[in-house]
Amino acid sequence: MTSDAAAWEALRLSLWVACWATVLAVPLALWIAWILARRDFWGKSLLSALVHLPLVLPPVVTGYLLLMGFGRNAPLGRALDSIGITLAFHWSGAVLAAIIMGFPLMVRAMRLAIEAVDPKLEEAAATLGAPRIAIFGRVTLPLIAPGILAGAVMGFAKAMGEFGATITFVANIPGQTQTLPSAIWAALQIPGGENQAIAMVMMASVVAIGAVLISEALARRVAARIAGA
Amino acid sequence: MTLSAHIRHRFGAFDLDVAFDAGPGITALFGQSGAGKTTIINAVAGLFAPDAGHVTLNGDPLFDSTAKAFVVPAARRFGYVFQDARLFPHLNVRENLTFGTRYAPASAKGASLDDVTDLLGLSALLNRMPATLSGGEKQRAAIGRALLAKPQMLLMDEPLASLDGPRKQEILPYLERLRDGPLGLPILYVSHAVDEIARLADTLVLLKDGRVQAHGPLYDVMADPGAVPLLGVREAGAVIEAEVLSHATDGLTHLRSSGGDLHLPGVQAQPGTKVRLRVLAQDVMLSVNKPEGLSALNVMPVTIQDVHQGDGPGAAIALRAGDDRLLARITRRAVAELGLTTDMRCYAILKATSVAPGSIGR
């Protein structure tokens, strides 16, 4: 594989992993954010701490814990393996690592958005005859959409940049588990690999800045609509 | 269409125990803040379940603590107009107005979007977002939104309280049209402003400290001397009905009530229409002889029905003028010196300015 092809392959894999991680994590993060924002139950602070744990643990530790839980010889990993799902040393494992590492950021953004919704608006919708599911779909969801979008962009960016947990859990196999950050790191290990590293740094920067710009533009459109401009 | 409610609820030191009926027209729940008005209307709407009691609409139970019945707010079909409008900020006025229409049963009778936009003057606002509306416009849109859910009854929680004077005057005629119009929708109206209820209500429920103190037709309760301390001595006063006869060139309007003719400034209504006049009790003077050489234009022969002596230096005198009733607030010393007693005939002197312009309405 030429070095150029390897860089493009790493970019493709990173985008693939980040997209999957975002798509899978958004509904789950929204659900957890909803529970944390709106419900009171025993163990709420424990759940909150658990969600935020990857933010404070060294990523290598998170990756190692994943390996212990989902490795081929771990009970959970064996169980998944028997139904044809292999996570360790596979791109789907990189998706899992990206989900877990981005989860605290997503939940936080969404929770803040949910807490900012005035429950009195939902009460008003109820008096107008709207059933619960319609209140969520027609009032709550549109109002928290900017927060969901912000959370999704953060999760996507985190997934694009995730390195420590990913390389620990799924290693650094070109074309299979070598994401952009892993490829940059690998290039820097080879004498004369700086040029290739710089090319990939540019790729990573363009994707990250692009994601932020798109989300800003969407958020501006929502804000402008509500302001009636 | 009759709402019947008995609500008992306790939270902290506050103890609410009220029972009342609300039939056609506007039923006003009046009381100072802390009297329990909003708690009552929220219990009626189903926004919370009270400790005990029942709420029925046309006999159908919406809440019954003994039968453990509780109908969720979405299924009660009340149109609730909140004090703070609560328009959905992400929807324009048209989308806000039609929000609840799809949830009404197909058989439900109610106004169309065109009816409502005409009634409330919303046609020009349909494509605007709530953030760009004035307080009065928001409240009109909120009323329209409640109407278009085709409710069986409207609940209004101080819909004018967050508006300034001119904005209030802007909304009041719309509320009168709602009351008198073809919709004929019953309204439960919460307020702590006597001028609003004097102008709008048909039935009045006076609340104090979580209890009903008086309950009956507006004209009766407002003319009841016992209600003076509940309404406030400066705000108390009977409401009479009068027909507009003509407008004179000096700005005064000639009106006829059953008790006699009146000449008042600031009446906007067309000749031939009937208006409500709120006559503040503290602006009515009494004279045992027919007064002469007086600057006041309006003198009515009246009969004393009741002399109600309070604890303080004041006394409230219930008067009958034709079919109408008046209330006068004078001092106890004056009662003694003039020898005012029940069934005595005397003259009530109303200063022409004693009728506030905002209190004149159909």
From TrEMBL, chain A:
<feature type="transmembrane region" description="Helical">
    <location>
        <begin position="83"/>
        <end position="103"/>
    </location>
</feature>
<keyword id="KW-0472">Membrane</keyword>
<feature type="transmembrane region" description="Helical">
    <location>
        <begin position="139"/>
        <end position="157"/>
    </location>
</feature>
<dbReference type="InterPro" id="IPR011867">
    <property type="entry name" value="ModB_ABC"/>
</dbReference>
<feature type="transmembrane region" description="Helical">
    <location>
        <begin position="15"/>
        <end position="37"/>
    </location>
</feature>
<keyword id="KW-0813">Transport</keyword>
<feature type="domain" description="ABC transmembrane type-1">
    <location>
        <begin position="11"/>
        <end position="219"/>
    </location>
</feature>
<keyword id="KW-1003">Cell membrane</keyword>
<dbReference type="GO" id="GO:0005886">
    <property type="term" value="C:plasma membrane"/>
</dbReference>
<keyword id="KW-0500">Molybdenum</keyword>
<comment type="similarity">
    <text>Belongs to the binding-protein-dependent transport system permease family. CysTW subfamily.</text>
</comment>
<comment type="function">
    <text>Part of the binding-protein-dependent transport system for molybdenum; probably responsible for the translocation of the substrate across the membrane.</text>
</comment>
<dbReference type="Pfam" id="PF00528">
    <property type="entry name" value="BPD_transp_1"/>
</dbReference>
<feature type="transmembrane region" description="Helical">
    <location>
        <begin position="197"/>
        <end position="219"/>
    </location>
</feature>
<feature type="transmembrane region" description="Helical">
    <location>
        <begin position="49"/>
        <end position="71"/>
    </location>
</feature>
<keyword id="KW-1133">Transmembrane helix</keyword>
<keyword id="KW-0997">Cell inner membrane</keyword>
<protein>
    <recommendedName>
        <fullName>Molybdenum transport system permease</fullName>
    </recommendedName>
</protein>
<dbReference type="InterPro" id="IPR035906">
    <property type="entry name" value="MetI-like_sf"/>
</dbReference>
<dbReference type="InterPro" id="IPR000515">
    <property type="entry name" value="MetI-like"/>
</dbReference>
<dbReference type="GO" id="GO:0015098">
    <property type="term" value="F:molybdate ion transmembrane transporter activity"/>
</dbReference>
<keyword id="KW-0812">Transmembrane</keyword>
TrEMBL record, chain B:
<dbReference type="InterPro" id="IPR050334">
    <property type="entry name" value="Molybdenum_import_ModC"/>
</dbReference>
<dbReference type="InterPro" id="IPR011868">
    <property type="entry name" value="ModC_ABC_ATP-bd"/>
</dbReference>
<keyword id="KW-0067">ATP-binding</keyword>
<keyword id="KW-0997">Cell inner membrane</keyword>
<dbReference type="Pfam" id="PF00005">
    <property type="entry name" value="ABC_tran"/>
</dbReference>
<keyword id="KW-0472">Membrane</keyword>
<feature type="domain" description="Mop">
    <location>
        <begin position="293"/>
        <end position="359"/>
    </location>
</feature>
<feature type="domain" description="ABC transporter">
    <location>
        <begin position="1"/>
        <end position="234"/>
    </location>
</feature>
<dbReference type="InterPro" id="IPR017871">
    <property type="entry name" value="ABC_transporter-like_CS"/>
</dbReference>
<dbReference type="InterPro" id="IPR005116">
    <property type="entry name" value="Transp-assoc_OB_typ1"/>
</dbReference>
<dbReference type="InterPro" id="IPR027417">
    <property type="entry name" value="P-loop_NTPase"/>
</dbReference>
<dbReference type="InterPro" id="IPR004606">
    <property type="entry name" value="Mop_domain"/>
</dbReference>
<dbReference type="Pfam" id="PF03459">
    <property type="entry name" value="TOBE"/>
</dbReference>
<keyword id="KW-0813">Transport</keyword>
<dbReference type="GO" id="GO:0005524">
    <property type="term" value="F:ATP binding"/>
</dbReference>
<dbReference type="GO" id="GO:0015098">
    <property type="term" value="F:molybdate ion transmembrane transporter activity"/>
</dbReference>
<keyword id="KW-1003">Cell membrane</keyword>
<keyword id="KW-1278">Translocase</keyword>
<dbReference type="InterPro" id="IPR003439">
    <property type="entry name" value="ABC_transporter-like_ATP-bd"/>
</dbReference>
<dbReference type="GO" id="GO:0016020">
    <property type="term" value="C:membrane"/>
</dbReference>
<keyword id="KW-0547">Nucleotide-binding</keyword>
<keyword id="KW-0500">Molybdenum</keyword>
